[in-house]
Amino acid sequence: MNPNEPVPADPILEVHGLSVGFEGFDGYADVVDDVDLSVGRGEVVTIVGETGCGKSVTTEAITGILNQPPAHVSGTVRFDGTDLATLTETERAELNGDRISTVFQDPMSSLNPVFTIGEQLTDTAQFGGERSTGLLSYVRRRHSRTDRKQARERVLDLLREVQMPDPESVMESYPTELSGGMCQRALIAQALLNEPDLLIADELGTALDVTVHDQILALLSEIIRDRDMSILMITHNLGVARQLSDRIYIMYGGRIVETGTTHEIFERPKHPYTQGLLASIPQLSGDAMAGGIDGSVPEYVDPPAGCRFHPRCPYADEACRSDRPPFETVGDDAGVECVRYAPDDAGPVPTVAETRRRLSADPETISTDGGTGDQS
Ligand code: SF4
User: Fold this and answer.
1) Is the CB–ligand 1 distance for residue 325 below 6 Å?
2) CB under 8 Å to 234, separation ≥6 — which residues?
3) Roughly what angle, to the nearest 10 degrees, separates helices 117-127 and 145-161?
4) Atom of ligand 1 nearest to the CA of 350
5) Which of 168, 201, 211, 223 is the most buried (most CB within 10 A)?
6) What number does the ligand 1 atom closest to the CA of 272 have?
7) What does the buried/exposed string (b/e) look like for 266-295 if buried means 16 or more CB atoms within 10 Å of the residue's CB?
8) Are 204 and 103 in contact (CB under 8 A)?
9) Pairing relation of β-strands 334-337 and 327-329?
């Protein structure tokens, strides 16, 4: 658990020391390592990082769907003050269907292909979040005209709210008869049916083409504006995070390496990985290829010792290769895991301009005394 992690005043979700690993043929993959994060009531928080950084595994562990081998999950997840480890499986399922909703990243494979959209969503409206619905009760209520009609009306209202074209005919369609964008809208409607307190959105719209992706983000933006709901989003797209989030966690190699308000992350990025991500955004002027981060995310069976970013970091030194850097708070609402922010620090604090220069330079030409370029 990280005592330096800045937390919101009224958190609905608190995660401490979350670690997730998987037994595999190649050995034990240490995919999420000692993650702390929190989401305040009504707050929109985003986890940002490259594909393969452990973002989806983190949210899957939070929702409890990894609670069996070959996954190994440790740490504490509290929702609205309750430690989720104290809940029975049924209570956990009830919570996930009622107060926590998740929209997964692939809309085409997240809906059941053998039931119509209407059947699936109406079932969610009628039975979602119930502790246990016996078979007889299910059949009786499933065929109760009043119950079913009310649930169906609610689904239609939600489909209209998510701007589904021709919702009446969509209700009678199977997922394979719909476009990816329509499936994504149906999933968002399904996630909102029970008015959850926390919505987890995993790379929403990423699997869709760019115009539909933009429409889905505009829809999410409206949902955030109109509903008093906490949202935990994950994305690899810094632009999406900037557009929608109150606060951001930057994740690399299964660890949170930086956190701060959206303004802080974009105006004063501290970690060289965050700076590298920002430097990777193509500029309209200048060399389009300059500033990318060489290399790739680490192998989790045998991750790099010390700071997991050190094989790609232009500032890495011996200390970085041996010891995990401490997580330090910077100001009131930001924190970073990098030796350059430790009290007994290793060198000058990097800047975006200096990081961009180093990322695009030949490593042989870079001295190890740190950069002092302009903060930009
Ligand atoms: Fe780079 Fe070292 Fe900081 Fe890691 S701890 S980001 S390797 S300077």
Assistant:
1) yes
2) 46, 47, 48, 55, 56, 58, 59, 200, 201, 202, 203
3) 110
4) 8
5) 201
6) 6
7) eebbbbbbbbbbbbeeeeeeeeeeebbbee
8) yes
9) antiparallel
pLDDT tens digits for range 153-186:
999 999 998 989 999 999 999 999 999 889 999 9
Amino acid at 139: V
Cα dihedral across residues 218, 223, 229, 234: positive or negative: negative
Nearest CA to ligand 1 atom 3: 338
Burial group, residue 19, by CB count within 10 angstroms (0-12, 13-18, 19+) = middle
**Residue spans of alpha helices (H) in the chain:** 55-63, 89-98, 107-110, 117-127, 135-142, 145-161, 167-171, 180-192, 210-226, 238-244, 262-267, 272-280, 318-322, 352-360
Chain CA centroid to CA 225, Å: 19
**Both tokens assigned to 201:** 């959105």
CA gap 39, 166 in Å, rounded: 36
Q: Calculate how far, in angstroms, residue 270's C-alpha sits from the geometric centre of ligand 1.
A: 11
Number of Cβ atoms within 10 Å of the Cβ of 299: 14
Question: For residue 189, which phi and psi values (nearest 5 degrees)?
Answer: -60, -45
pLDDT score of 330: 86
**3-class secondary-structure state, position 206:** coil
Please give the pLDDT value at position 6.
62
CB of residue 320 inside a 6 A radius of ligand 1: yes
Residues 6+ apart with CB under 8 A from 362: none
The strand pair at 11-24 and 27-40 is best described as antiparallel
Tens of pLDDT, residue by residue over 95-131, are: 887 899 999 888 888 899 999 999 999 988 888 656 5
- Distance in angstroms (rounded) separating the CA atoms of residues 375 and 352: 7
